[in-house]
Amino acid sequence: MKTMELRATVNGQPRQWTIAPGDLLLDVLRREGFFGVKRGCEKGECGSCAVLVDGRLVNSCLMFAAQVEGCEVLTIEGLAEGEQLDPIQGAFLDHGAAQCGFCTPGMILAAKALLNKNPHPSEAEVREAMAGVLCRCTGYIKPVEAVLAAAKQQPAKRATRKREPAQVMR
Amino acid sequence: MFEQVEAFYRPSSVREAIRLLEGGKGRARVVAGGTDLVVGGDSTVRALIDITHSGLTYIRKQGGVCAIGAATTMAELEQSPAIRGLAGGLLARAAATCGSVQIRGVATVGGNIANGSPAADLVTPLLVLDAVVVVADANGRRKLPIPEYLAARGTKGLRRSLLVEVTVPRPLGRRCGWSFQKLGRTALDISVVNVAAGLQVDASGRIQWARLSLGAVAPTAIRAGVAEENLRGRRLDAEAVAEAAEGVMREVSPITDIRASAAYRREMCRVLTRRALEECAAQAGCAL
Predict the structure, then answer these.
(1) A66 and A92 co-located in one domain
(2) In chain B, how many domains are there?
(3) Domain residues for A132?
(4) What CATH number does the domain containing A145 carry?
C-alpha cells in the first residue's frame, strides 16, 4: 500500500503521521488515540465525528486526512486547558446536557465553533449551529440551554440581543 | 473504503489540476468538499486531486455578471454581500439549505453542480438565473449554459474536464421577484422536490418574463418551458399562478425512491410552484 506523510497541528501539538492517501480523517484520528472523535453514521449525517479544522466545524468522516496538511485540528481532547474545562464543557455538566455522551464531543465542538464567531447567539442561532449533531437519547433542550449559559459567561459585547423563534431542531 | 487510492495531490493551479486529471486516465477524482465523493465510496478511484488550493475560491463582480469559483463553499455564498444582493439573495438562500453547518462549511458550488444530483439545491436557482458553467481541460476553457452542461455531464467531451467557475448574469430592472422553495423531511435533508422561480412584471402587472425550474423530479433539474411561456404577457394574478402550478405537473417526470413516491413529488411540484410564484408576486409588488 502506498503511504504519505501528514503534518498537522492537533490540539496544539505538531504531529507527523504516516497515512494512506485515501485515509479518512476520522480513521486517522482514532488510530492515533483520539477516541473523543466518535464513529457514528460515517455519512456526514450525525455529526458525532465533528472536529474543528482551522476553526471550521467539519465532519471528519467526510474529509480525507490528507486535506488537513498544515492545518490546526481541534478535537474534544484539546478543548480543556489542563484541569480547567472550557466554559461550554462546564455548562454541559451544570445543565446535565449529556446522557449517553456519544454525541457530546460533536455538540460541544459545534458550540465552540459558533461562540468563536458569534459570542452572544440567539437561541435560534444556537439551534441552527447544532442542527448537524444528532442526539438519540435526551433531545436538545438541555444542550441548547447549556450553550446559551456558556455564552452568558462570556464578556458582553453586543448591546442588543436578537431573539427569534426556534426553527431548525424540534 | 478508499484503500486503493495511490496518491493524493494538492495542485496549486488549475493548469496543474488538469494535468493531474489527464494523467489519472479516468481513475482520478476531484476533491473539493468531499461531502458527495466520500459518501459515494467509489472503489475504482486511484488518485485524488484536491482543488481547494488551486485558486478557485472567489466571488467577483465583473461587469454585468457575478463570477463564482468552483471551490467556493455554501457558507461563503450565504455570507457574501454580492450573492445576497443578487436576485433577491436567491442563491444565498438556496445555499443555506444545503445540509448542516459542517456540510455547508466545506461543500462547494462546483461539487453541487458537477456531482449531477437531480436534487442539487443550487442547480434550480442557477437555471432560473441563466447561469453559465466554465469548464477547463487540456484544450482550454469552454463556456456552457447550465442546461447544456447538465446534458453533457458524464459524456466523453467532458470526462477529463474540470468545472472551474459558474457565472451568473446580474438581473437588472424593477418589479422583479425571486423565490426558492425546498421540501425535505427535515430542515437538513436532501430535497424531495425543490423549485426556483423568477419573474418581472410591467407597471400594469403584466408578466414580462417568467422562469421556473424544478429539481428532483427528472434526471436533472429542469426548466418548465411551457409553463414559463404560458405566463408571459399575462396579468400576474391568482388564476395565472394556479394554472402555472397545475401546468408544471405535466412537464415533470418524477420517480419513486426512498424519499418520496412519484405521485407525491408531482403533487408537491404544484404546491411549491404556487408558493414560489406567490413569493415572486409579493416581491414584485403584485397583490394576488
Answers:
(1) no
(2) 3
(3) 87-153
(4) 1.10.150.120
Residues A120 and A54 in one domain: no
Answer with the one of B140, B169, B198 that is the final residue of a domain. Answer: B169
Q: Are residues B196 and B158 in the same domain?
A: no
Residues B82 and B111 occupy one common structural domain: yes
- A110·B48 Cβ contact <8 A: no
The last residue of one of the domains, among B169, B194, B217, is B169
Q: Which of B286, B246, B115, B130 is nearest to B190 (CA)?
A: B115
Question: How near does any CA of chain B get to the CA of A84, in Å?
Answer: 27
User: A44 vs B102: CB contact, 8 Å cut-off?
Assistant: yes
Test the A interface: residue of B100, B104, B115 with most A CBs within 10 Å: B100
Q: Hey, is B252 helix, strand or coil?
A: coil
Q: What is the pLDDT along chain B (288 residues), one digit of tens a residue?
A: 899 999 999 999 999 999 999 999 889 999 999 999 999 999 999 999 999 999 999 999 998 999 999 999 999 999 999 999 999 999 999 999 999 999 999 999 999 999 999 999 999 999 999 999 999 999 999 999 999 999 999 888 888 899 999 999 998 889 999 999 999 987 788 999 999 999 999 999 999 999 999 999 999 999 999 999 999 999 999 999 999 999 999 999 999 999 999 999 999 999 999 999 999 999 999 988
Say whether the ipTM exceeds 0.90. yes
CB B120 within 8 A of CB B163: no
Q: Residue B207: what residue type?
A: I
Q: Please judge whether B3 and A59 are an interchain contact, meaning their C-beta atoms are less than 8 angstroms apart.
A: no
Q: Say whether B38 and A20 touch across the interface (CB within 8 A).
A: no
Domain check: are A9 and A74 in the same one?
yes
In a domain, B191, yes or no: yes
| B201 Rama class: left (phi>0) / alpha (psi -120 to 50) / beta | beta
- Pinpoint the alpha helices (H) of chain A: 25-31, 87-94, 104-117, 123-130, 141-153
- What is the distance between the alpha carbons of residues B259 and B265, in angstroms, rounded to a whole number? 9
C-alpha cell at A21: 492517501
Burial B47-61 (b: 16+ CB within 10 A, else e): bbbbbbbbebbebee
Is residue A44 less than 8 Å (CB to CB) from chain B?
yes
Q: Which of B114, B116, B132 has its CA nearest to residue B30?
A: B114
Q: Do A64 and B100 touch (CB under 8 A)?
A: no
For residues A93 and A74, membership in a common domain is answered with: no
Contacts of A4 in chain B (CB under 8 A): 7-8
